[in-house]
Amino acid sequence: MNGSSANPGTSAQPWKSFQDIFAQGRTYGSGDVVYLRSGNYGAAVVNGGVSSGNRTIKAAPGAVPRMKTLRFAAGATHWTVDGVLVSPQEADGTYTTANLVQFDSGATNDILQNSQVRAASDEAADTWYNNDWVNRSGTGIVVIGSNDQVLNNQIRNVRNGVMLERTSTAGAGATGGVVRGNSVNHFWEDAYRCKVSGCLIEYSSAVNSYAVVPPGTESDPPHRDMFQSYRGDGSFTPVANVVLRGNVFVSRMGTRYSKIPFQYDGKYTIQGLSAFDGPYSNWTIENNVVQVEVGLAMGLYGMNDSRIVNNTVVPRYPAADSEIRLTDQKDGTPPTGDIVRNNLAHTFNTAAAADAQHSNNITVGTSYSTYFVNYQAGDLHLKAGDPAIGAATDRDAPTVDADKKARSAPYDVGAYEF
After folding, report:
1. What DSSP element (H or E) covers 112?
2. In 140-197, at which residue ranges do the beta strands (DSSP E only) sit?
3. Quick one: which of 228, 240, 238 has its CA closest to 331?
4. For the whole model, what pTM was predicted?
5. Which secondary-structure segment (H or E) carries 36?
6. Tens digit of each residue's pLDDT (9 = 90 or more) over 196-237
7. How far apart are the C-alpha atoms of 315 and 294, rounded to whole Å?
8. Which label site among 160, 206, 245, 320 has the fewest CB atoms less than 10 Å from its CB?
9. What SS3 class is residue 376?
């Protein structure tokens, strides 16, 4: 059925294009839903909005609305986009290294949920070599506006996954951003990034980081992290009140692509949960699972007055090095006021945090078969008879685990309750 911009936008008389939704004079009440049928909606832009309530643009039942890119423009507010496919290759057969989804500065209180975001289909990406990844994949989702949410999306075949960015040395940008229930699979730089205060990243995952090296960077290849925070602007404005909860980061697992390696120059390159530069304050880092081959599995620089509790951090088999590192910020100032409890890790490097409260942490060493259901396969749930069972304190501990399973006294050490 062909639509028309002059139509009333009913099922029998639909509009023609995505931008018809925002035509002058059209208004929507709180709770209104605009349904999208299958088709190519091109470079879709969400505009306008209201100060309260929420309006939804949603895939019709059984439909697959395809978009080359999706942008929430400055001034777009209280819009939810639900159930779309953002993929330039699948929309019109082209590629872009630009951001696939972007929440502009000034786009506030918007939501993207239950959607698929990828540079190309898995079938196409499986044929890519190094330079194809460089020239055909961009960042999945970039958030610059405040109080936006990225919920339950599948992000694949991208350079970066979800980026919460800052726009000034004072720390403006994607403050109050919520990233929940997302997966990032098949990527080659950072899976998640938060450079602003007040962001929440929880119950999300990242897997399969490839060693893509852009031409000209062979001597200094990309710095890859499952999660990364850094200032990058020369300021010392603290990044505060960040929550990282219940995330599962695994460097390699499941189906992989055959044309691109996990290693560069014989080495794995993906780091784990990293907060560089500093200062940081009042972070909550709990119930996270980190398995990478590089020793810096959890690196916290200049982390102050923060809780690092009930995390599981071990090398991805067959690597031998992995640690929780709590150390000085970039200017040499040591961290203060931290709480480090109930963590299950290969090793700890936290001596720089001289006044931190340490308790009920377990150093696993290489006794993986003693603690985990199937370490080699990446299953880090606790096994029967595990020394971590009942060995935690409930002080400062989350009441649920990484699977959202209720903890029962006495609590278990690590991200998973037996």
Report:
1. strand 111-113
2. 141-143, 149-151, 154-158, 162-164, 178-180, 183-187, 190-194
3. 238
4. 0.97
5. strand 33-36
6. 999 999 999 999 999 999 999 999 999 899 999 998 777 778
7. 8
8. 320
9. coil
